[in-house]
């Protein structure tokens, strides 16, 4: 397996409680050359913006649960597919925050 993507993105700033926080999406993607398979692990979390300690992350119930996807794809298309999947994931994470505010 070889790493083809390791990324995170601040999806939205959240004004929760007294401390500002960031809603983040993350992805780790590996490509299995032997089986021509993309394996991508997707996650989402909320972290404090200003802190003196290492990242303190939480996963509120309204966030989508972490997912691991496996897709059969050729080596030339794997990186593009991983980026496309991550973009769809960030949209899903952003929508979950909007839905949580509506409740």
How many domain modules?
1
Distance between the ends? 42 Å
Largest sheet: 5 strands, antiparallel
List the secondary-structure elements in sequence, H or E.
Answer: EEEEEH
State the secondary-structure class.
alpha+beta
**Total number of helical segments?**
1
Form type: elongated
Helix content range: 10-25%
Mean pLDDT: 89
| Chain oligomer state | single chain
How many β-strands, per DSSP?
Answer: 5
* Portion in beta strands: over 45%
Poorly predicted tracts of residues: none
Radius of gyration: 15 Å
Q: Which SSEs are present, and which pair or pack?
A:
Layout: E1 2-16, E2 19-32, E3 37-48, E4 57-58, E5 67-72, H1 78-102
Antiparallel strand pairs: 1-2, 2-3, 3-4, 3-5
Features:
5-stranded antiparallel beta sheet; 1 helix; alpha+beta; 5 strands
Describe the structure.
By secondary structure, this protein is of the alpha+beta class. The chain has one domain (about 1-100). The chain is built from one helix and five strands. Strands 1, 2, 3, 4 and 5 form a five-stranded antiparallel sheet that branches. A hairpin with a 2-residue loop joins strand 1 and strand 2 (about 20-30). It is elongated, with a radius of gyration of 15 Å.
Write a brief structural summary.
The protein has 103 residues and is α+β, with helices and mostly antiparallel strands. It has one helix at 78-102; strands at residues 2-16, 19-32, 37-48, 57-58, 67-72. The chain has one helix and five strands, in the order βββββα.
């Amino acid at each position: 397996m070889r790493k083809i993507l390791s990324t995170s993105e601040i999806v939205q700033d959240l004004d929760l409680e007294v401390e500002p926080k960031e809603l983040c999406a993350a992805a780790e993607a590996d490509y299995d050359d032997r089986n021509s398979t993309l394996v991508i692990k997707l996650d989402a979390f909320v972290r404090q913006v200003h802190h003196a300690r290492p990242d303190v992350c939480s996963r509120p119930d309204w966030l989508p649960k972490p997912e691991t996807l496996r897709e059969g794809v050729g080596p030339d298309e794997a990186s593009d597919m991983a980026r496309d999947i991550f973009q769809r994931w960030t949209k899903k994470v952003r929508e979950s925050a909007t839905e949580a505010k509506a409740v």
